[in-house]
Structures are given as C-alpha cells and as structure tokens.
From TrEMBL:
This is Glutamate dehydrogenase. It comes from the Bacteria. PANTHER family: NADP-SPECIFIC GLUTAMATE DEHYDROGENASE 1-RELATED. Residues 202-445 form the Glutamate/phenylalanine/leucine/valine/L-tryptophan dehydrogenase C-terminal domain. The lineage of its organism: Bacteria, Pseudomonadati, Bacteroidota, Flavobacteriia, Flavobacteriales. Keywords: NAD, Oxidoreductase. Homohexamer. The gene is gdhA.
Length: 447
C-alpha cells in the first residue's frame, strides 16, 4: 500500500476510534480512489476524500416508549447525514440490537457512492436504532416507530433527507413512521420511500434490491457468455433482499438451494421453487418466525443449525443477510467448490480477506454498492413518482431498474477493467461513484 494511502487511513482512524466497520469501508475505497486522484490532477489536493469521510451531520437521540407490560423502554436512535453534494440525503433505517455509530457510518459512506452510481440525484445517509424487533408485538413495533419518528421528523423532509427500510424495517415499519410524520407535520409528502402502494409507494420497490442484484449478476455472467440457466445458486438471508433475489434467480433458470437467518441455513437440493418461496415469505413476513420452520413443511430439505451456507457447492453465491457474513475461509471454500460469480445483495457481506480471495482467483465479484443499488434506485423512482403525483406500472419500473443496473455494470467495466480484460468491480464502483460526487463538490466550492 502506498504511503499516501497509509497516511490517509491513519488520519481517519485517529479521528474515528473504535469504529471498525466504518474503517473497513473507508479503507476499501481509499485503496482504489487515492491512486485515481493522484493520476487526475483535477481532483488532487482538494481534500475531496477527506471531506467525504466526514459526515455532514450526525444526529443521535433518545427514543423512549412503553412496552406491552407498561414498562418504559429506552433506545438510541441515529441519523447519519453523510453527503448531500448530488441530492437530498437518502438511505435506509435499520432496527437491530447491533446498531451503533460505526455500523451506520459505514452504511452511510457506502450509500454515498452507491447512490451516485445509480445516476439519480440522491445524496448519502443512513439511520436506525439499537431496537430489537424480534419478539415484539405489532403494537410495540408501532409505538417504537412513532417514538423514533417523533425525533427524526425534525431532521428529514422530502427535499432534505428521505429515509427508507433496511434490516428490521420493512413495509409495516415504514407505514407506521410515515403515519407519525404526517400527523406531526400535517403534510403528505414523499418523505419516506418503501411506502405502501395505497399511499405513494412504488410498484417493484419491495422486489428491487433482490431483482437488481440478480440483474447485475446476469450482466457479469454475460461478460463470460454465460447466464443463470442451469446454475446452482446459494443465497444467504431470508429477508427482503434474499427473498426477491431467490425469486428472480429462479425465474431466470437458476436453482436456489439455500436460505438462512441468524440461527442457521436450510438446504433444499431440489431448489426453492416459487411455491416454497411463498412459504418462506409466510414464515418471515407474516409470522416473523425462524427459517428452520421450512423443513417442517418440506422435510426433504435439511436445516443446518448455527452455520452459514457457503460450504454448499454452487456456481453463483448471493450474500443477502448482513455485513461480514462471509470470511476468508468461506471464500476459499466457495472458490474450491467451483463458484464463478459472487454478487453481494447485502452491504459489505464479504470481509476484506474474502474479497481478496475472490479477486485473486479472478472470479466475478461485485461489491454491494454496485450490485445492491437497485433498491435505492427504485426508491429514487418512487421519489420521482411522488413529485409527479403519478404511479408507473410494474413493467415500467422494472424496465427502468434493468436499465439502471445495466448502466452501473457499464460504469464498473469502464473504470475497473485492466489491460488483460479482468474487471475489478470494486475499483470500478468506487471510482465511478467517486467521480460524480467529487465533480459536484468541486463545483459547489468549499462547503
Ligand atoms: N432492503 C433494501 O432495500 C436493501 C437492503 N440492503 C442490505 O441487504 C441486507 C439485508 O437487508 P434486508 O433484506 O432489507 O433486511 P431484512 O430485515 O428483511 O432481512 C435481514 C436478513 O438477514 C438476516 N440476518 C440479520 N442478521 C444476521 C446475522 N447476524 N447472521 C445471519 N443472518 C442475519 C436476517 O435473519 C434476515 O434474513 C442488509 O445488509 C441491508 O443493509 C441493501 C440494499 C437495499
Ligand atoms: O431505498 C433506500 O433509500 C435505502 C436503501 C438502502 O438502505 C441501501 O441501499 O442500503
């Protein structure tokens, strides 16, 4: 690593102690973007990356609410307003007990580059709370969402900052937060995306991240003259992204054999068909249950407790659960088992060591900021529809999503191809994402 990269990382680490996930994301970007800055005088000496790693604003707040037993509960809420150079802050809200400043800053930093890649006018943001939705009643979820929005509403707006869902926040939670915002502000605006269809949501937004991930993988496979047809696919997670990645990979002729949650994974050698996926959706979206329930209905499948699915032989891997869920040894196993393509549906699911294994093996590897950008891109389309007070059809939104994913792929190829034809999608995504934000920052002066 060059001295300038080392110096940069050391300075950021000193300023942000105890933030390992944030530093992991910063390091990955610095390693590819600093050499690009040094080769392009227009960007040199302008402190652009130094400014990008410093959030424009961090909001931390107390969230108090009363549970079903009448006991007062206290949580911590956050919103990271990372970068608004190219549009209003935009990014999801995560409710999970692991949520802390480091995780949300890494997500907001990644989001800035990802949103830039979509080519839509959206800056980077992320938020959440250390609230654990597991085991909570519907009323408790509503009370928490209302308490959270009571404070958050002071800092967001349709032209300022537009949150959406992430882990632990789906259509139900977005609906409760939207209702509370409307009550407090007495305005019906597109302040959140991922809304229900009856109150300004966009068709295809629920599907968009998973579908987009598979469209991106399809473009990657096409560079080798290949496709999903007949491929064995391993998916991790069983939430929003995993469900629709499974659906689209199956529709394109792949056979998805695993899904998982934090308790373990299910392996179904016959493939998770549309009918079986409908049962996963019932387990996860209606009953808020565990993936192990799958084997009670489909006993030919097995549940492997406490393990992740990367030991299962596959052609394509789609990590769709959470950060750092795929380590170096697991990456080696995937490569040794013949995996040819990894497209991240989650944010930063591969550790840096795992990423290097994929890159050294020269298999197709896409970082989440490129391959999972379909979700936020479709949120951008929801914002456009809200502004126009129009609703587009599923076909229209899906076509736009496909076009956006193809353009992101092309941008990665443009900035990530080496002289031997190998496409470094990490480098490509980081540089392409950087350029648009950097140009806007340069044009707007030192602000
Ligand atoms: N929902 C969206 O539109 C987008 C989501 N993402 C990312 O995709 C990933 C999944 O998010 P969603 O599907 O929306 O969330 P979700 O809440 O619907 O599902 C999360 C899934 O991850 C699993 N999970 C969570 N923590 C885990 C752990 N420690 N070990 C194993 N599994 C774990 C859960 O069991 C669940 O299956 C996250 O990294 C998120 O940031 C990225 C882009 C957009
Ligand atoms: O749709 C959005 O605004 C947020 C999506 C998101 O959180 C992500 O891309 O990680």
């Amino acid at each position: 690593m060059s001295q300038s990269i080392n110096n940069f990382i050391e300075a950021v680490a000193k300023r942000n102690p105890n933030e390992p996930e944030f530093m992991q994301a910063v390091k990955e970007v610095a390693e590819t973007v600093i050499p690009f800055i040094e080769e392009n005088k227009k960007y040199e000496g302008k402190m652009l990356l130094e400014r990008m790693v410093e959030p424009e604003r961090v909001i931390m707040f107390r969230v108090t609410w009363i549970d079903d037993a009448g006991k007062t509960q206290v949580n911590r809420g956050y919103r990271i307003q990372m970068n608004s150079a190219i549009g209003p802050y935009k990014g999801g809200i995560r409710f999970h007990p692991s949520v802390n400043l480091s995780i949300l800053k890494f997500l907001a930093f990644e989001q800035t580059f990802k949103n830039s890649l979509t080519t839509l006018p959206m800056g980077g943001g992320k938020g959440g709370a250390d609230f654990d939705p597991k085991g909570k009643s519907d009323i408790e979820i509503m009370k928490f969402c209302q308490a959270f929005m009571t404070e958050l509403s002071k800092h967001i707006g349709a032209d300022t900052d537009v949150p959406a869902g992430d882990i632990g926040v789906g259509g139900r939670e977005v609906g409760y937060m939207f209702g509370q915002y409307k009550r407090l502000r007495n305005e019906f605006t597109g302040v959140l995306t991922g809304k229900g269809i009856s109150f300004g949501g966009s068709l295809i937004r629920p599907e968009a991240t998973g579908y987009g991930d598979v469209y991106f993988a399809q473009s990657m496979l096409a560079t080798k003259g290949d496709s999903f047809a007949g491929k064995t696919v391993v998916v991790s997670g069983s939430g929003n992204v995993a469900q629709y990645a499974t659906e689209k990979a199956t529709q394109l002729g792949g056979k998805v054999v695993t899904m998982s949650d934090s308790s373990g994974y299910i392996y179904d050698a016959d493939g998770i068909t549309a009918e079986k996926l409908a049962y996963v959706m019932e387990i996860k979206n209606v009953n808020y249950g565990r993936i192990s329930d799958y084997v009670t209905k489909y006993p030919n499948a097995t549940f492997v407790e406490g393990k992740r699915p990367w030991e299962v032989k596959c052609d394509v891997a789609l990590p769709c659960a959470t950060q750092n869920e795929l380590n170096e040894d697991e990456a080696k196993t995937l490569v040794a088992n013949g995996c040819i393509c990894v497209a991240e549906g989650a944010n930063m699911p591969s550790t840096p060591e795992a990423m290097h294994v994929f890159q050294n093996a020269k298999i197709l590897f896409a970082p989440g900021k490129a391959s999972n950008a379909g979700g936020v891109a479709t949120s951008g389309l929801e914002m456009s529809q809200n502004s126009l007070r129009l609703s587009w059809t599923s076909e229209e939104v899906d076509e736009r999503l496909k076009g956006i994913m193809a353009n992101i792929h092309a941008a990665c190829v443009k900035y990530g191809s080496d002289t031997n034809g190998y496409i470094d999608y990490v480098k490509g995504a980081n540089i392409a994402g950087f350029v648009k934000v950097a140009d806007a920052m340069l044009a707007q002066g030192i602000v």
